[in-house]
Design brief:
Length: about 160
Amino acid sequence: MVGLEEIFEEFYKSNQKPDEKITARLVDSARKENYIPPKQEAIYSEALLREYSLYCQKKISGFTGQTESCCDTYQGIPRENIPWYPTVYEERCDGCKKCFDMCPQKVYLWDEKINKPKVINPFVCVVGCSGCAEVCELKAISFPPLSILDNLKSC
């Protein structure tokens, strides 16, 4: 969405905590530069609040910016159009930190409050890599099936 960084920075500087009380204001701010379908407003509200919460966590942790992607494209397809990145199931995670420690791409931010990883840079994940899921003994991390990559190649 256009202008999210600026919106989030404005909210952060005015000490707005990422809670449900600010959801309507987040949507109104985003709507100034973006079309939000009325029937999808609840989904956008949830996503904006989640993204603002991650933004705040990055600021608090001292995260200074997006890491460089290992690749801008995969098979000629822009990396941001490839749905290859981890999903963390927080209810299964025991906070062992193996995934966080093994990922050289900095896909994760460690959330100290809940002692679990958060995916903050999904598109720096190396396409086809699932090393973090492999070291997770509790199977708290998953990836899409490898067959999606075959489907991309055939397009």
